[in-house]
């Protein structure tokens, strides 16, 4: 008895570098990556750069940077289609030799006129097969000096169908499909053909992509069959909509993926959020990357469009940020603190940053938020708002502040000793905690809303507190 080993799962992400990759695009990378990783398979990155006029190196860089940041590691690639032209032309020649492809000399003007006639007659505009060879058919004379396109002989009868892992059974009548152009007059192959050759050569088993490709799929299945290649499993993901309910696109204000990195989002939080934009595991909202890979399958892909919600993304990021160990968080926030104006020397002068992170992480949504708090512990001065100053740093507060400044000049510098000194000042002055704590917060950190005042002061340090209390 012989047994066959199961086929190794191979998936791919194949973006076009014609615009900066946004969250809707990157979700089309996340799912094939997750499926390959969950199945012990391979994940391939292919750059579909055949649109030479619109493709840019800057867009390629954002794709690579975005995937590196999100830690969507690839097993093969990036593979660039423009470097595979010789291979496409070789396969094209095979299809011509096998009779699957034929030259078509219909000019653009003739094709436009044909479509106008069909539209006027309320017919679907489509190529009419003028140059398609058939038994007993007399083809028109070949015009002089015209370079033909190459068209694929689409089967005329029956249906082309597949069981989509996201959308279920999908069928197209072959009679509805005309003969597709698969090479231009200069011999360069077109998108649908290149994709099939790539997927065949790269042994892709599962094509997981956006549902804007559904109409390409029957064409590609025909080409796979003509090539004698195994047709991959398809999963067409619903569109990601922006907050206005429109398809997410750069034109509609979508941000490049790398902008979220620069705004202080965590890669694991982005993976968590994007995963939930079209897939679910029960009611689980917050999960780690390891849990996602353990749970992910193609059976729980959603069928309806996912809508981006920045407030929800911030909330998810906040949950991941809170869960990080203080030391790890300090390492992640450090570049943002430096960007906020703190120097390397200031940060390296002591080991306060992890403790600052631990104190403030519960009230921050992003690393930028956290860095803005941390910065206040290193710079020389802060700028309280006029409203906070007017409300809290009043003439009535001055004696309290003076007494507090005197009390902390000699106190042992621990949180407990600072808390005890505050209690003594309040008792001696006959005041309540907010009457002292609020103006102290405003003068030392520039805002009336901070964590526990004794914890903040202990981390800020005696010299900075005294300097800031005496600055106004």
Automatic annotation (TrEMBL):
Record flagged with keyword Chloroplast: no
Family label: Belongs to the class-I aminoacyl-tRNA synthetase family. Glutamate--tRNA ligase type 1 subfamily.
How the protein assembles, per its UniProt entry? Monomer.
Q: What name has this protein been given in UniProt?
A: Glutamate--tRNA ligase
What function does the entry list? Catalyzes the attachment of glutamate to tRNA(Glu) in a two-step reaction: glutamate is first activated by ATP to form Glu-AMP and then transferred to the acceptor end of tRNA(Glu).
- Chain ranges for the short sequence motif 'HIGH' region as given in the UniProt record: 15-25
Catalytic activity line of the entry? tRNA(Glu) + L-glutamate + ATP = L-glutamyl-tRNA(Glu) + AMP + diphosphate
Basic and acidic residues bias: start-end ranges: 122-137
Which GO BP terms, alphabetically?
A: glutamyl-tRNA aminoacylation
Q: Where is the Aminoacyl-tRNA synthetase class I anticodon-binding domain?
A: 328-470
| Residues noted as binding ATP in the record, renumbered to the chain | 250
Q: Spell out the SUPFAM superfamilies in the cross-references.
A: An anticodon-binding domain of class I aminoacyl-tRNA synthetases, Nucleotidylyl transferase
State a single Gene Ontology molecular function. ATP binding
Q: Which residues form the Glutamyl/glutaminyl-tRNA synthetase class Ib catalytic domain?
A: 9-315
The main location class comes to cytoplasm
Q: Where in the cell is it found?
A: Cytoplasm
């Amino acid at each position: 008895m012989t047994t066959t080993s199961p086929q190794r799962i191979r998936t791919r992400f194949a973006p076009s570098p014609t615009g900066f990759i946004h969250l809707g695009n990157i979700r089309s990378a996340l799912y094939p990556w997750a499926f390959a990783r969950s199945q012990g398979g391979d994940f391939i990155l292919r750059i579909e750069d055949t649109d030479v006029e619109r493709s840019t190196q800057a867009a390629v860089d954002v794709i690579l940077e975005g995937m590196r940041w999100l830690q969507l590691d690839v097993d093969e690639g990036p593979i660039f289609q423009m470097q595979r032209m010789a291979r496409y032309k070789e396969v094209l020649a095979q299809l011509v030799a096998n009779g699957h492809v034929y030259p078509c000399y219909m000019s653009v003007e003739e094709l436009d006129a044909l479509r106008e006639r069909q539209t006027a007659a309320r017919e679907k505009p489509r190529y009419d097969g003028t140059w398609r060879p058939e038994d007993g058919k007399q083809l028109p004379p070949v015009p002089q000096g015209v370079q033909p396109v190459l068209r694929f002989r689409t089967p005329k009868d029956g249906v082309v169908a597949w069981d989509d892992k996201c959308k279920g059974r999908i069928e197209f009548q072959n009679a509805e499909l005309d003969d597709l152009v698969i090479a231009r007059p200069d011999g360069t192959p077109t998108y649908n053909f290149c994709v099939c050759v790539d997927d065949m050569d790269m042994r892709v088993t599962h094509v997981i992509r956006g549902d804007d490709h559904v109409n390409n799929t029957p064409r590609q299945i025909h080409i796979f069959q003509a090539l004698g290649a195994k047709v991959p499993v398809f999963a067409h993901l619903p569109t990601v909509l922006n907050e206005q309910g429109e398809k997410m696109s750069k034109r509609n204000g979508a941000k490049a993926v790398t902008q979220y990195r620069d705004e202080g989002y965590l890669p694991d939080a982005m993976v968590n959020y994007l995963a939930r934009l079209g897939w679910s595991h029960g009611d689980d909202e917050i999960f780690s990357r390891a849990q996602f890979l353990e749970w992910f399958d193609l059976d729980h892909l959603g069928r309806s469009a996912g809508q981006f919600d920045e407030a929800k993304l911030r909330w998810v990021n906040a949950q991941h940020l809170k869960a990080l160990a203080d030391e790890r968080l300090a390492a992640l926030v450090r570049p943002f603190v430096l960007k906020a104006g703190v120097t390397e020397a200031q940060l390296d002068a002591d080991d306060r940053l992890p403790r600052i992170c631990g104190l403030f992480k519960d009230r921050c949504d992003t690393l930028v938020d956290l860095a803005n708090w941390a910065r206040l512990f290193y710079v020389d001065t802060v700028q309280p708002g006029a409203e906070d100053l007017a409300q809290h740093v009043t003439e009535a507060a001055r004696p309290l502040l003076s007494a507090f400044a005197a009390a902390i000049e000699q106190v042992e510098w621990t949180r407990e000793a600072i808390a005890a000194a505050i209690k003594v000042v309040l008792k001696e002055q006959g005041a309540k905690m907010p009457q002292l704590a609020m103006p102290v917060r405003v003068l030392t950190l520039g805002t009336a809303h901070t964590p526990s005042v004794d914890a903040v002061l202990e981390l800020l340090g005696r010299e900075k507190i005294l300097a800031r209390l005496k600055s106004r």
